[in-house]
Amino acid sequence: METLKKIQRRILIFFFLYCSACTALTEKTGQLMEEKLLGEKILDRYAVPEDTLLLQLVKRKKAGEEWKMNIKAWPTLHFYFFKDTGSSLHEHESFIPLSCSFLSPGLSGWNEFTLDLTGEGTITAADKDMLTVSVSFIEVIDMAEGRIRRGDVRISGSEALDALKNRRERIEALTEWMHAQNGEEIFSDQKIFENYWKPILLPELCSAKKRPALYQSNGAQRVHDGDVRWNTAYTALLFPEELRPLRDSGSLLRDWEEAAAWIYLSYEWNSIIKTITEEQRFIKIKK
Prior knowledge:
about 40% helix, elongated, about 35% strand, single chain, two-stranded antiparallel sheet, 8-stranded antiparallel barrel, alpha+beta, 7 helices
């Protein structure tokens, strides 16, 4: 008869093998879902030892083979780089930024867009299981395409692109001002970012105790926008002239509700690019 310790050991081994199988199945399922949703076939996968960056060699339906980089903290942000199909990676190969795509969820839909990029970089194979990536710089050229969903309404083509470009101009003007107010402070996640900035940008939507002192100290001059009565005196005291109409008209509120993740992305953009342009070593993920 087996002792209790032997039985426990067998149960533990079985549990470990079961969990390992489940993990492998989950990863494979996620990979297959990603291939289906993005129209890509994943050929190889690499990750940095800290598991904060993922590099994949993908075959895209319209573009052929490209390198794709993901930051773990930004699961809906994808960077694509040039793949020299004539190289076997025994020496330096060009690793040129091509584009990035981002999906920004909102309260009742999403914004999705692609930015054309330019820049320089190299990728080198130290051995068959290790790649070294060095990107010297990345710059945005322009927004290339996009789609919008608002409730049951889907918008694409030039109509979506025009609306997204206008929103991008508003968001970048806002985050430029936010940095001027707050320096280059980094927020570790979107929730912390929103908890800090919402009472400043939209104090009317917060409880009285969360509103900044500046909001409480001025005269009540208000303008209606639907159900919200904006304190225009606060707007004038805090915001530069070019941003005041955005807050008082409700445009800032709509951007916040429909694209808070995009505002966070714009605010953290320099930090994201800094992460990508640091030299990184990627280890191959075994299939």
